[in-house]
Amino acid sequence: MFNVTRAVMKKYILFMVFFGATTYSYTNSGGAPAGYSGSPASSGQTCSGGYCHGGGTASGLELIDISFSQDSVINGDNLTVSINVNTGGSSNKVGFSSSVEDENGNTYTPISVATGSQLSGDYVTHNSSSTSVSNDSINWSFNIQEANYPDSLTVYAAVNFTNSDGGKSGDYTIKTQKTLYKNLVFNVDESTLNALVIGPNPAHDFIKASSIGLTEIRLYSTTGRFLGLEAYGMSNVDDIQIDVSQLARGNYILHALFEDGSIRYKHVVLN
Length: 271
Known about the structure:
The protein is mainly β and 271 residues long. The chain has 3 domains: 1-30; 31-182, Sandwich (Immunoglobulin-like); 190-270, SoxY domain (Immunoglobulin-like), CATH 2.60.40. The chain contains 1 helix and 18 strands.
């Protein structure tokens, strides 16, 4: 009786191990869990490493493009976000996890997802029918709509390239992100606005902004992170200057705030 029981238990344990492994593989093909987009809100985590996919190496031919249906948003806009992947021939099964976050890491839940995508909490991921690559390409899309958009929204995406063997090894993940800025004067005739002059641009030690009604300028990274640099205008003076001498050379976004509550954006370069 004891021997029979041991044999039955061994078969049961083997069945559970096999069933668990099968279930794990199926679950990942059906979509990533929330919190794996590689974003600040997900603490940089992706589906690579640990008990997830790993061991593979990127070929360098992969291309991931995040695109928006418009160049900037105003409150209430319905924004379409597309994630377009070209594998460069490196994989024929690809999945993803994506999140939309403001500069403080707060997430924004999409209002809808296209066929092939699904929500996982505040995150968007693939489903089991949308991982097959065709002509080295695959894409997903979803929509965001906010009554009050933050100054900037960053879309983070972690794309998992697999070797289609049903296991976790031999796969790898590539992370990317793209930021969209709010524009409170979007769709307004520029000729009706006071000119905003930024100079010098490219700049080295300082940037000066000039415009009627200008009250404040702030400097952000191109990923939407506020750099803690801001300067305020004085009464009856429409010029504001900000010291940029301690910043790394590169590209930045200047936010110009006006007394009527509007915000305008300028791309500036430090050299």
